[in-house]
Design goal:
heterodimer; A: 202 residues; two-stranded antiparallel ribbon; 5 helices; elongated; B: mainly alpha; Rna Polymerase Sigma Factor, Chain: A; Arc Repressor Mutant, subunit A; 2 domains; 68% helix; globular
Chain lengths: 202, 182
């Protein structure tokens, strides 16, 4: 392993004055500083502003197209299983199965299933669920607390698949559903919850 | 004379979230240069860097509501673009990284000093490309973008001692490569 005098690191980290070092160490410090100075030169002739603004003004793809694209796109997921909640998940799946089998419920297409979102937020004024099924757009799926017991619920028909989601409380606080079977880390440093929607009819 | 202070990041974010999509252009103009430079140093290619930064801005726009600390938007944007760069690197081997910072073709308007600087930059960029992606990222964030170790930890999700170690190793490898090329 190549090592250099630790005083060089101390000086470059601002913990030591370079003036206090022997000339050969000062030379190494100047080399690093000169390299950084060269790399700090602006990258000329490139701008992404027009491209980005055009993209964000482009009409959003249809809901079906977004779902189709999400399903066919490969996703790298890091799963963290919580065995203690697997029983709760199994119960939730059982409830979903019974719910789907009952007459008089929403008519489902062959590849659709029902997702039930439940969260306890005693002081919340509003709770929404956002996720990969609605392109993370807040405000489109509201949970309800009809008996004012602080437990908010929503039942949603979705194409069968695996979705990431979070709750948005009072329109501003994003929180994962810790009762979900899985939590996955996303690239923004958050934890998303995961729900698996199974087709009601096979 | 009408002198007004530029709106803060948090103010611009609030405008965008309030429906003024055009205001997002303010954030692009504010951070584009630094992010393009960072991505170019990471990927060794201006085209790939432009792709990574453009993707990063679009993602930032779409997830802007989830930015919990708009006053620290810069750090958040670097985090997103860092992840886009890692995705680009994962799709190709380091050996495929193009070096489009190679010594420029002589232009009559270029001075000798400009050409020499271009050659030196190509030398340093080549040495940088030989570092592992983690060390390259740490060196560029620290010495080129001027982030503190605390900011680097927020960008990368790594612990400060880990980042310090990477910066140290990057300096050592860079000095060795520069000595060999000298």
């Amino acid at each position: 392993m190549n090592t250099i005098d630790p005083r060089i690191h101390q000086a470059l980290d601002g913990e030591l004055s370079p003036d206090a070092l022997p000339p050969e160490l000062q030379r190494a410090i100047r080399q690093v500083a000169a390299a950084a100075d060269l790399l700090a030169a602006p990258v000329r002739g490139v701008s992404v502003e027009l491209r980005v603004m055009a993209e964000i003004h482009r009409p959003a793809p249809t809901w079906a197209r977004r779902v189709a694209r999400w399903i066919v796109t490969p996703h790298a997921l890091t799963f963290r299983f919580r065995p203690a909640w697997s029983l709760a998940f199994a119960a939730a799946v059982a409830v979903l199965t019974v719910f789907a089998a009952r007459g008089g419920e929403p008519q489902l297409a062959e590849h659709e299933g029902i997702a039930q979102f439940v969260g306890r937020f005693p002081d919340a004024r509003s709770v929404h669920v956002v996720g990969s099924f609605n392109d993370w757009r807040a405000g489109s799926i509201a949970l309800e607390d009809q008996d004012h017991d602080g437990v908010w619920r929503a039942t949603v028909v979705l194409p069968a698949g695996t979705y990431e989601y979070m709750f948005v409380v009072d329109g501003e606080r994003w929180v994962p559903d810790h009762l979900a079977d899985r939590l996955v880390a996303d690239e923004f440093g958050r934890e998303n919850s995961v729900v698996i929607v199974r087709p009601a009819r096979r | 004379m009408d002198v007004r202070a530029a709106p803060s990041d948090a103010e611009v974010v609030a405008r965008v979230l309030g429906g003024d999509a055009e205001a997002f252009g303010i954030l692009i103009r504010r951070y584009e240069a630094g992010l393009l430079r960072f991505a170019t140093r990471m990927l060794g290619s201006r085209d790939a860097a432009a792709d990574a930064v453009a993707e990063g801005f679009v993602r930032a726009y779409r997830h802007l509501a989830s930015c919990r600390e708009p006053q620290r938007l810069r750090t958040w944007l670097y985090r997103i673009v860092t992840n886009r760069c890692k995705s680009h690197l994962a799709r190709r081997s380091v050996a495929d990284v193009p070096l489009d910072e190679a010594p420029p073709v002589a232009d009559p308007s270029d001075t000798e000093a400009t050409l020499e600087r271009g050659e030196q930059l190509a030398l340093v960029q080549r040495a940088l490309t030989e570092l592992s992606a983690d060390k390259r990222e740490a060196f560029v964030l620290k010495h080129v973008e001027g982030l503190s170790y605390e900011e680097m930890a927020a960008v990368t999700g790594e612990r400060i001692p880990t980042l310090k170690m990477r910066v140290h190793r990057a300096r050592e490898a860079l000095l060795k490569a520069l000595e060999e090329d000298a």
